[in-house]
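User: What would this chain look like folded?
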Amino acid sequence: MPKDKLTDYSATNASNTDVGGVNIDEGMLPSGVNNAIREVLTHLKNFASGTDGIDVLSLADDDASAAMKIQAPASVTADTTLTLPDGDGDDGQALVTDGSGTLSWASLHSAKNLIINGAMQVAQRGTSSTSTGYQTVDRFRVDKNNVAQLVFTQSQSTTAPDGFSNSLKIEVTTAETTLDAADYLVFTQRIEAQNLQHLNYGASSAKSLTLSFWVRSSLTGKYSVNIYSEDGNRVNTLSFNISTADTWEYISIQIDGDTAGTINNDNGAGLNLNFVLAAGSTFSGTITSGWQAYTNAKYAHSDQVNFIAQTGTFYITGIQLTVGDVDLPFIHESYAENLAKCQRYYQKDFRLVAWNVSTNASTSASLGNFPVVMRSAPSAVRTGSGALTSTAPSSTVMYAESGYIYSGTSNACSSNLTLDAEL
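Assistant: Here's the prediction, encoded as structure tokens.
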């Protein structure tokens, strides 16, 4: 068949014997013309193969009156191959790289981190604790069972990776080399269900997620991380590996959408993101990939490390969970933005002032609007001075998601409130 495409030609001069069906084999043309044509075809073949190109690729319009040009840098330090995605993206999307040359479409401006306080900026309760539950970094709770001495800290390590000043630090101060069956150590963020409706769980169009974070540990090896659906009682357990002790490493994990799952449209917990640092035999086993009905044995991999087997430290920051398969750069937010999101679940030192509302000066009432609407009517603890702390309310106390109302038998008082509506 005649050769009529660049890719049909050979990088060897003697193998180029025709052009579009015209014979240019040896002896068919004067030798100089013959060899010149063959040389040109060889260069064209090398150009089409990407082995002998030029620094500018020109893509002309239909009448060749103008062109779009793609140009390499003046000095290229290493060969780089950029692989384009298959097909066009959606309106407003841009090309992003995975760091290895593979490009894909991503909605950078509409991307949203489903994790709150992933940069560990906000710690309303304090910066260090030995207790479990919500104690230090907002929105992250630590749970353990039959585990010895631990310290949980909002760390301001100077070794944190670029762009991050804070991290969650978990320190083992007393080693526990042998785990009982029911032992575990885990830290979690619970994500409000009504913020996850766009994931379309339970449908064939269920969206995938990308989890990324920076981590550093004194103990290398395999760690488990699972994402658990409370409404569907389903779990997807994955893992990541720390290869070098006491060195920050970047981790990115893709999570398939759950086509058989359920996330209710309410203010309860929709998905729980659980990082497992230790798990006894009750909470670990051989894990099949993908989403499945939850059992305790599917909570963690049986071959994961036992972080509490030695004294040491585990740091994590930059936790991000975004929709899609693209590993996006971390979406940094201001402290004020982070604080406002955290205050939906917990507020410290909300100021309340009561005033006299009766003619006999024996009854007071107060009304305060919270800085943000809370997830649910919060529990409240009074701190500070005034009748609200010195005596119990003798009349009505009401809490709502948006404010606090008090009426009692004191004609003037003030107080600070700690409000808790955590999942």
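The chain has three domains: 6-49, 128-341, 344-420. If you want, I can go into more detail on any region.
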